[in-house]
Amino acid sequence: MVLGSFLIIGGVVGFLPVVGFWMLPLGVLVLSQDIPAVRRWRRKLAVKFFGRKEKQGRQ
Question: How many folded domains does the chain comprise?
Answer without folding.
Answer: 1
